[in-house]
Every structure is written in structure tokens, then in C-alpha cells.
Amino acid sequence: MSLLTVLSLLLALPILAVTLYLGLATAFSFTTTHTVAAVPEDSDENGPILCIVPAHNEAGTIGGTVRGLIQESAACPPVLVTVAVIADNCTDNTAQEASLAGAQVFERNDPLNRGKGQALDWFIRHNAALLADHPLTTIIDADTRAGSGYFRNMSAQFTSPEVQSVQAFYDVANPFDGWRNMLLSIALRCLHHTRPAGRTRIGGTAGLKGNGMMFRSSLLLRYGWPAGSIVEDLEFSLRLAAEGIRVMHTNAAAVYGDMPFTRKAATTQRTRWEGGRWLMVRAWLPRLLKSFCTKPTILLFDSILDLLTPPLVLLVLFQMAFTLLWWLSGSTLTWLGLLMLSVSSIYVLTGLIQTRAPFRLWLALAAAPAYVLWKLTVYAAIIGSRQLNWIRSEREGGKQHE
Q1: Which residues form the Glycosyltransferase 2-like domain (predicted)?
Q2: In a 3-state reduction of DSSP, which class is residue 322?
Q3: How far apart are the C-alpha atoms of 95 and 332, rounded to whole Å?
Q4: Residue 172: enclosing H or E segment and its boundaries?
């Protein structure tokens, strides 16, 4: 084995490790059941559910979202749902539209502490009695539609006292509004379905995805929302994992959020998502490694590997680079590169198969090269940015979202 081969193999070890992790999660995702447990009639999980909807200048969408949530709650008795909208630093008619649609509205004005995480923490701290009256609390975005049976199926996941938090499948409501949204829907079917399903089966955490999350209210009363970064959901997930608390995944409930489809708006959103993830790597990786060295657990190991796993586009580009290097140098390791690429391909195909993706999404895979080139511009924007702040993603047709 040549010196070049040895050195390239050493450099490829991190990519090989996260690829194996991805393959393991994919394999275990097939062992996830799709059944919904029956909730005993005297269970607390049949008690009222508090549905929190954080909203910032969402007058164009909040009315439809609230009406949809109320209709969904009425369709699945005996579950009772209270919809509470946080009108956070709004300069439009979000509060009025939410109230007219039937929600309880809580207005917050604190321009120095902007952000979804800050709004949630404020609400939890100032409305402890409301949470105490509702055994379960779910958080849904202001531009989101809950899937059929959402409240009933989510509450059914809490029959075990060990379950403290559950994440529903979070997909794109408008997948066919442009090729970017079609490719994003494919990515979310892997990232929000296949991967968390496998992670929880091996003893890890599904992680919070920011939308379609449900908690025991006692957990939120204990923690508040101690995450104010631009990826507060990931930050809270890591905090919970560091304290031994898992987020469970369910295939039985789903939420669908509107996504921007113009290049400018989509780039803003993805820059925030992926740039924020990089900030979490820097902030949390040392803490998780320290905790793992002190008291190793599968939950911590899973969280570390997931945090180290790069976005799929970058992972595949690394895999292709090593495969090409080994092939051009005539190395016998070429098979290893092809194996890594196969694992990534199976991961994507599994996400499409498990979520029963429509045929049009399968056809959208042909646009993957254009998607990769666009994502590279997103990464360039992240590298060139001195700081990453909270920026609302503009929505087409006047709709906006934090």
C-alpha cells in the first residue's frame, strides 16, 4: 500500500465513520413500527393539549393555520386542544387574525431579544399555570398544516412515563413549487423520517426539528426553552441529550410547512439552517465529548456522530473526491469509495420508499446536480459571513415566516 493510499485513508476515516453511522441508522429505520398505541380512557394523555404557535408578522398565514388546528382537534375526540398564538414583535395584524380564527393570543414586544427561542421561553415562563393545566404541549409553526390525526396520534406516544418528548415527521407543504422545494422534500424525508427513526431504534435521539414537536408540559416547566440561537431546536435537542433525555420519533403523525421557493428566500433560509448547525458544532461538540468521556452512553455517542455528520451534499462530494482519488491512483481502496457512495444512495432511496414519495419527487432526482451547485453557493455564503443572525425567510404571495 503506497504512502498516498495510507494518507488518503487516514483523511477519509471521518467520512467513513459518519457514512457507517448513516448506514446503520438507515438499516434500523426498517425496524420501526407504524402502529399507534391505544390510549387508556383514564390516561393523562387524554387530557387537554396546549398547542403553541409562535408567529412573527404572519398575518397572511396565521388565520388558516389556527383554523386548521382547531378543525383537526375537533376531528379526534376525546382530545381537547387549546391553541395559543405568540404574536412576537409583530408590526402587522397577526394578533387580530389569530384571535378571529379562534386562538388565544399572547403579544410579546421585546425587539432587543428577537427570535423563536426567546419567544417560546418568554411564553413558558409567563404562562406556567396554563401549561400546568395541559399535560402535553405541542409547538407548531405559523405556516403549517397538521396531518390527519396529529393530536391523537402524538398524544398516544406518551403512554410510557419514560417518554418526555416526541417529534413528528416534518415535510414540505408545497413540494412542487419549484425544483428546490422538490429536492428539499426529498432531503427532509431522509433527515426527518428515515434518520430519526433509525437513531431512536439504536438508542439515540430523533432530535427536535422545530415544528411538530410535543412535550410533557412538566418538561417545559422545568427547562423553559433554554435555547436562543438561530437553530434553537437543535440547541435544545443537544441540551436534552447531554442530560440523558431522548426525543422520540413517530411515523404516525406529520406536519407540513410552507417553504420559500425563490432563490433569494431559499438561500436565506438554508444559510440560517446550516450555518446555525455549524455554530452548534463549535459550541456543543466539546461539551458532548467531555460528557461522553466521563460517562459514555449510546445517546451521547449518537448525538456526537449526528453533529459531526455533514449535510448530505457535502458528504457525497467528499465521498466522490476520495473515490476519484483512489481510482486515479490505482488504489485497491476504490471499492471503499464506491461502498460509501452506495450507502448514501440507499439512504436517499430509503427515505423516498418509506414515505411513499410521489413519482414526481423521484423524477426530481434528475435536478440533483443543480441542487448541489446551488448548495455550494449557500456554503460559500456561510464561510463568507462574519456572523449569522436571525433572519426571517420571505414567503411568496406575501407570506412570511421566522
Answers
A1: 138-356
A2: helix
A3: 64
A4: strand 165-172
pTM to 2 decimal places: 0.89
CA 303/CA 284 separation, integer angstroms: 10
3-class secondary structure, 80 = coil
In the 8-state DSSP scheme, what is residue 137? E
Rounded to a whole number of angstroms, the CA Rg of the chain reads: 21
Q: In terms of Cα–Cα distance, which of 128, 141, 138, 135 is closest to 224?
A: 128
Amino acid identity of residue 355, one-letter, is: T
> E strand or H helix at 394, and its extent?
strand 393-394
DSSP for residue 275: H
Residue among 167, 347, 375, 186 nearest 270 (CA): 375
- Residues 6+ away with beta carbon under 8 Å from 349: none
Q: Using an 8 Å Cβ cutoff, are 401 and 59 in contact?
A: no
Counting as low any pLDDT under 50, the low residues of the chain are 38-40, 42, 390, 397-402
Interacting residues of 334 by C-beta distance below 8 A, sequence separation 6+: 323, 326, 327
Consecutive H or E run containing 400 = strand 400-401
pLDDT in tens, 204-219: 999 999 999 999 999 9
Query: What is the reported pLDDT for 401?
Result: 36
The DSSP result for 198-260, as a single string, is: HHHHTT------SSSEEEEHHHHHHH-----STTHHHHHHHHHHHTT-PPEEEEEEEEEE---
CATH architecture for residues 44-280: Alpha-Beta Complex (3.90)
Per-residue model confidence as pLDDT tens digits over 310-353 = 999 999 999 999 999 999 999 989 999 999 999 999 999 999 99
Beta strands in 1-121 (DSSP E): 49-55, 81-88, 104-108
| pLDDT for res 205 | 97
Q: Tell me if 202 sits within 8 A of 300, measured CB to CB.
A: no
The HSE-up count of residue 171 (CA atoms within 13 Å, CB side) is 24
pLDDT for residue 375: 87
The pLDDT score that the predictor gives to residue 1 is 67
Q: What is the dihedral of CA 233, 237, 243, 244, to 10 degrees?
A: 150
270: its cell numbers = 438554508
